[in-house]
Amino acid sequence: MSRQGSIFYRLLNSLKEQQSFGKSKYTVKKKAREEAIKNGLHGQDVFNAMNDAVFNAGIFSVQTYATYRNEVKRFADWCKSKGIKNKDFDKTKDMVSDYLSEKISLDQSAWSIKVARAALRKAYKDNSLANDIKIPERRLKDITRSRLERPDDKKINLDNYKDLIDFCKSSGLRRREVSAITANDIYKKDDRLYVHVKNGKGGKTREVPVLKNYQPKIESILEKAKDRGNERLFTKIPEHLDIHSMRREYAQERFIEIRGRRYKKHTRDKRDRKAVREVSKNLGHNRENVTVSHYLS
Q: Is residue 144 pLDDT above 80, yes or no?
């Protein structure tokens, strides 16, 4: 049988058909929300309408496509290991639940199982696929990324990237956002430096305050960048540089700037909740509980 007819390539072709790179997820969600409200929907029904719209709109980023591609390859290989032939492709959809159940029995992380399910739902164009499988909740104690020393940390000489590291710690931007910043995106207002993010997650823009104790360093970086013209500040960002840990550090320092102390777990103080809301906004996160559990705790 030709490569075109293999399990993997049929799933891959389905993903390719749904490529919507550059399309704004935020715009899709906003339009779906407005339509749902206009049609008299409320609460969870509005949320479901937004999710359906995003699912049907395709795959928005190259990175997500690459992740889904790897996941469907793993599933296709698993199907072959179970004796499924390419000609039996129509049977594979019914095997997704068994595949996910096996991953759960192997004690794989909830996050990796959810990614696999999302990829296969997209490949089979079925947003309710494997709804019968209850995926374990992601436990905070299992999240070790950016909290412990990683082998990757030893693969690069951090002294060669001091400006980049200072910028990441001062602004809390995502890797992709950092790579797009130019000198013109940094400005001063009321003696405070800000970074203008033109195209954040979901296509959103935001204004990010630079941590005050980093301002002199960022101003120095900015001067060097202006000497080169309006080019990107950082043309090389090492793959193994743990940007996420710097986002976490920024979030914690930003909270201290606002409240004068570190975040207290299970706080009921309205001023703390307001500060969490501000930090979430600075990070470009919609959900404050994610900011608390992944960045402040």
A: no
